[in-house]
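Reader question, answered in our methods column.
A reader sent in the components of a multi-part assembly and asked whether the whole thing could be modeled at once rather than chain by chain. We filled in our standard form and ran it. Here is what they sent:
COMPLEX SIZE: two components
ENTRIES:
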Amino acid sequence: MKVYLDNNATTPVAPEVMDEMAGAMKIFGNPSSLHQFGVRARHIVEEARSRLAAALGCSEEEIIFTSGGTESDNLAIRGALKNTEKRHIITSAVEHHAVHNTFNELGKQGYELSRIGVDSNGVLVAGELERALREDTALVSVMLANNETGAVQPVREIVPLIRETSPGAVIHTDAVQAFGKLDFNVKDLGVDLLSVSAHKINGPKGAGALYIRKGVKVKHLVSGGHHERNIRPGTENVAGIAGLGKAAELAVPLKAGVIEKMKSLKQRLIEGVREKVDNIRVNGDPENTLCNTVNISFNNVEGESVIMMLDMEGIAVSTGSACTSGSLEPSHVLKAMGVDPVAAQGSIRFSMGKYTTEEEIEYLLEQLPPVILRLRKMSPLEG
Amino acid sequence: MEEYSSKVMEHFRDPRNVGTIENPDGVGHVGNPVCGDIMELYIKVNEKEIIEDARFKTFGCGAAIATSSMVTEIIKGKSVKEAEKVSNQTVAEALGGLPKVKMHCSVLAEEALRKAIEDYRKRKNT
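And here is the structure of the entire assembly that came back:
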């Protein structure tokens, strides 16, 4: 049996999206051309824009297409800062690397950083943010939901705080993980900028978008033509954009039906693991994490060996730690939550998708306990 | 990440000599759980200075488990003097190579072996 539980890394492309993209690839015109070849391609791009705008609850002219979540985050943060002289910027301690490392670099360039901590459930401490806000704060970037733990951040709640104390600050949120798994729309959130990615919502890799609230200024990061309102030059990735539009359209009903389904699978997963494996810690409050994400520390075992053993049984999961990427530093997210560094080494992220079935979760619950038992027998940390 | 060799996978899937030795003649304990790797190597040495048995317990990634398993295989039946010559390269080569980011696991195996032999000498001389 093959069970894919790494949907926060990427998702399988929906068949409807593939069809949409195959059709779009046949329309080879340049959307900027005036002739009919170009006009047909332009139609595809604009159709996708209107689908995505509908899914996010904004208007078409507030959408800029990019190459994905990382570019959207960079464009949002760096592009907004190009329009201000203010040098104080704020983010959370648990951002995705696309934001986390962008802030690190800005810090080296002389920006003054405030990184807001999280509680033991991985949720931003709003009081700490309140104290960090200043009149000269240029930008605040806080993700909508965390990729490792699924913790949902109080973005809607902090927007009024920021507006009050730092009226000039631009507010960005990375909604890459939240999109399709959390019921939100940009107007309710009240943010200025919001990043999304296609491949996390059963769309293709290499396509994403940035919502820019009307009136908010973002300057291009690379120079080129007039595409995407001069904010993101370069001939549009027509097929990718078509795929993103279709995936966004499919994500709307996803919110309604699939969120409930994933919630019950998540509950079963947590209950099952608790029942069958001792000495574990569920990271994050299940009531306030994404419907599809479960992060569990299995004490006295190391994450990569768990992944490899589950992989042999056909189950794909991932680790919270960065060990596989060559760094021995445990995840900055779990560290910020105060998870014991040794326990963090044994943290596994299970992330479900819209195609995940009950049968697959039951299969995981059969295969996981013997894997943990086997590794614990090998572990010198077991008493 | 680079893929693991089939030999690494074989030793990960079916690690040799897992466990501890009662009344061992030498024990090597290396690593740090915060970094994600701990190895414990136990050896039993006979009067002819031949390593009769070697066992390990490891907390770590796939490569850490495979290198632990491999080092016990290599040193079993060898004299202590021969075993001393076993380096991290010996272990990595026997596994058909390791991804660059995992070479430190073979270093850990070498260190565990050195510590176990050191411990054996210390016990013998007291």
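What stands out: Strands of chain B lie at 26-32, 37-45, 51-59. The two ends of chain B are 47 Å apart (CA to CA).
Send us your own complexes using the same form.
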